[in-house]
Amino acid sequence: GIFFHHEMAQTPLYPRWILFFCEVAAEEGGASPICRSDVLYEKLASDRPQFIRDCEKKGLRYSHVMPAENDAQSGLGRSWRETLAVQSKSEAESRLAALGYEWAWEKDDCLRTTSPPLPAIKRLGPARKSFFNQLIAAYKGWQDERNDPSSAIRHGDDSALDAEAVRYAIDVADGLAFDIPWQPGDFAIVDNRVVMHARGPFKGTRRVFASLAGMERQSFSITQA
Questions:
Q1: Whose CA is closest to 208, among 25, 17, 16?
Q2: In angstroms, what CA-CA distances link 57 with 48, 52, 183?
Q3: Residues 42 and 200 sit within 8 Å (Cβ to Cβ)
Q4: Mean pLDDT confidence for 171-195
C-alpha cells in the first residue's frame, strides 16, 4: 500500500487538483482511502497544540536518498532520474538548485536530497487551515536500506519532530479516513490542498490513473517564537 499524503507536498511545486480514473479494478482490495486534512488540523490543534505551533512556525524539511535506477523496494520506488525528469548528474544538480534543495552524491550513484523548509500547514481561508504536508507518508513509508524514516523529516530549523504527536496524527488520520472503492469507469476529482489520499493493498491487476492539474508553488520562512 501507499500511506496518506498530499501529492508532492514535500516539494516546492504541487498540484491543486488530482483527477483519478479507474480503468481496471483490483480483484481484491485496492481502494483509495482519503482523509480531510482540515478536519485533521482542527483535531491536532485541539489535542496537540504545541506540535501544531511548531509545525506552523518551523515548517518541515524532507530528506530522501534516491537510487540511480528504479527500485520497487526503495522508499519512493523511483530513481533520481525519473523523479527529477533528468538523464545526467549535472542536469539533476541544476534542477535541484533551481528548487532550492541541498544534495549529496553517495555510493552506487545514489542521490541524497534535502528540501528547503516547506509549509506544514496551509491556510485555506480566514478561519480554515489544512494539515498539508507529507509527514505521514515519510514517517511510515520512507524506509529501506538507504532511508531511516526517523530522520527523513524534521522541522525547518532541523529540530526533531515530536514522535508521539506524529504517531497521534497518524492514528487520527486513520480514524477519519474513508475508502473510494474503485469500479471500472469510476473517477474522482480531489482538491489536493484539503484531502490526503493513500492506496490500500490489493490482489490482481489494478489500473487507476492520476492526472495532476493546477500546479502551484509553495515557500516558507521560519518565524521566531
A1: 25
A2: 15, 9, 42
A3: no
A4: 97
